[in-house]
Amino acid sequence: MFEYLKGRLTKITAKYIVLEVAGIGYILQVANPYRYSESVNQGLTIYTHQVIREDAHLLYGFETESEKDVFLRLISVSGIGPTTALAIIAVDDNEGLVRAIDQQNITYLTKFPKIGKKTAQQMVLDLAGKFVDVTVEAGNTAPSAPAGNLALDEAMEALLALGYKATEIKKIRAFFDGTTETAENYIKSALKMLMK
């Protein structure tokens, strides 16, 4: 229904961002909300996909058309819902994802939250060779200033929202204790560690 929204970013949480368009605040579920930290109170174009359920109308947001395309292909696979697709996109390694699918690397795919062996095999079956026209685009937002432990708290909350287990997050958090970084960078580093 909506191809994209143009508006002003007014709020960032661990689970979503709010984009104000013509006086209306739209809640957009995104892969890594903190990647937008530098854009608060600035104008943005966010590509969108709407999911209508009996109990909710949800909008999912993406920085690029390419990211949206990957999301749409992922949710076409049986067993992968929007939340799981966002968790996969949050790793920010489309090339690695496409390579794993094309090379039938089930071990890599099962490292994503809520992706078991059966779903990983279904991903290979449904998506192998289908990503040739997907271009990998870099994000266009710069990291914000470090915010200490608050940033780490926010990052861990975002990982929980993406579907990672509390036990996994606890181990990751211990690694970052005592460091000072942005929430966006904590999330990126943590996702890389979780995928190893």
Automatic annotation (TrEMBL):
GO terms for cellular component: cytoplasm; Holliday junction helicase complex; Holliday junction resolvase complex. It is found in: Cytoplasm. GO terms for biological process: DNA recombination; DNA repair. Residues 147-196 are annotated as: Domain III. Residues 72-91, 107-126 form the Helix-hairpin-helix DNA-binding motif class domain. Homotetramer. Forms an RuvA(8)-RuvB(12)-Holliday junction (HJ) complex. HJ DNA is sandwiched between 2 RuvA tetramers; dsDNA enters through RuvA and exits via RuvB. An RuvB hexamer assembles on each DNA strand where it exits the tetramer. Each RuvB hexamer is contacted by two RuvA subunits (via domain III) on 2 adjacent RuvB subunits; this complex drives branch migration. In the full resolvosome a probable DNA-RuvA(4)-RuvB(12)-RuvC(2) complex forms which resolves the HJ. It comes from Streptococcus varani. InterPro entries: DNA_helicase_Holl-junc_RuvA_I, Hlx-hairpin-Hlx_DNA-bd_motif, NA-bd_OB-fold, RuvA, RuvA_2-like, RuvA_C, RuvA_C_sf. The RuvA-RuvB-RuvC complex processes Holliday junction (HJ) DNA during genetic recombination and DNA repair, while the RuvA-RuvB complex plays an important role in the rescue of blocked DNA replication forks via replication fork reversal (RFR). RuvA specifically binds to HJ cruciform DNA, conferring on it an open structure. The RuvB hexamer acts as an ATP-dependent pump, pulling dsDNA into and through the RuvAB complex. HJ branch migration allows RuvC to scan DNA until it finds its consensus sequence, where it cleaves and resolves the cruciform DNA. SMART domains: HhH1. Pfam families: HHH_5 (PF14520), RuvA_C (PF07499), RuvA_N (PF01330). Keywords: ATP-binding, Cytoplasm, DNA damage, DNA recombination, DNA repair, DNA-binding, Helicase, Hydrolase, Nucleotide-binding. Has three domains with a flexible linker between the domains II and III and assumes an 'L' shape. Domain III is highly mobile and contacts RuvB. The lineage of its organism: Bacteria, Bacillati, Bacillota, Bacilli, Lactobacillales. This is Holliday junction branch migration complex subunit RuvA.
